[in-house]
Amino acid sequence: MTGWDARGVRTRIREMAAEDPGRERFGADTHRYELAPPVPEAEILAFEEAHGIVLPREYRSFVAEVGDGPAGPCHGLLPLTVPRPEAGDEWAVDDEWQEDRLPGRLALPFPLTAPLPGPIRRPEAALTQGTLTLAERGCGMFLRLVLNGPRRGEVWQIDPDWGGFVPASTGFRAWYTAWLEGP
Asked: What's the predicted TM-score (pTM) here?
């Protein structure tokens, strides 16, 4: 199943916002339970063509049908293509997001077939090739979507200081749904 119940997701996010008016839930002060409009199909195709990839179906259908972040796990779902300003502030694109968009990087093979325990002693850029940053957890930890190879579609967490680079979820849908249904 790849399609999303966009109305259901938006309703759940509104419920979460109503249940957390003080934005006490982790990351809520960053994403503010706001959901950007979906990305037009032409923009998704242009992104895929420019990077020589095909996005995993669960993620692709989410940004096409539901929205392009930021409401989501951790400090929120990063946008696929164009950073969007938040509450009138200029959106600061972090290094991870910019690194993902380097020419050819997303099409490179994901180098891991098994978890890599931390701390990480190799250059991070070599480990994260073939993955797309989904969210920042904080303290240098990021969630990344594997774009190719035997782990395609899985969400992995990289924590270079302690946790290594390990699977966090079997797929984007499971990862995002766990956030929607979580405490």
From this structure: 0.90
